[in-house]
Amino acid sequence: MKYLMLIYGNEEKWASFPAETWPEAIAKQDAFNKKYEATGELIGAYGLGGESEAKLVRRDQAGLPAVTDGPYQETKEYIASLYLLDVDSEQRALEIAADMPWADAEPIELWPVPHDSKNDH
């Protein structure tokens, strides 16, 4: 079963971390990624661009993309990273989410992914 883990953040939060703590934080996250890549349970881990880089795309009446700055929601935080897991059970997904280096300070949003367009045919 696949699960999506979402990490939220914002520019204010990132700026509040002292610059000298970033190398250790990145090392912890890299270790987490390598640990679960090695087990085959982490399919991918992706850090997203900042909110100033996000775009909201709609299709106009001519069928062309109508693009505005995003994210659309009026929110203080946005999705900063996403992780795709492939595990044997929900319990295992919960264990991996709880092992995220910052799960003691920030919640990890966990979503089941019941449909896979590659395998739903």
Structure write-up:
The protein is α+β, with helices and mostly antiparallel strands. It has one domain (2-113): Dimeric alpha+beta barrel (Alpha-Beta Plaits, 2-Layer Sandwich). It has helices at 11-16, 22-39, 90-99, and strands spanning 2-9, 42-47, 55-59, 65-69, 78-86, 109-113. It has a four-stranded antiparallel sheet. A hairpin with a 5-residue loop joins strand 3 and strand 4 (65-69). It is flat and about 50 Å long. The mean pLDDT is 89.
At the fourth level of CATH, the homologous superfamily is Dimeric alpha+beta barrel
Q: What is the strand tally?
A: 6
What is the level 1 CATH name?
A: Alpha Beta
Number of spatially distinct domains: 1
Write down the Rg: 17 Å
* Outline type: flat
User: What is the oligomer described by this structure?
Assistant: single chain
Q: List segments where confidence is low: pLDDT < 50 over at least 5 consecutive residues.
A: none
CATH architecture heading: 2-Layer Sandwich
Helicity, as a percent range: 25-40%
Order of neighbouring strands in the sheet with most strands: 2-5-1-6
What is the count of helical runs?
Answer: 3
Q: What is the string of helix and strand elements?
A: EHHEEEEHE
Largest β-sheet summary:
4 strands, antiparallel
Distance between the termini: 17 Å
CATH topology: Alpha-Beta Plaits
Structural class of the helices, strands and pairings?
alpha+beta
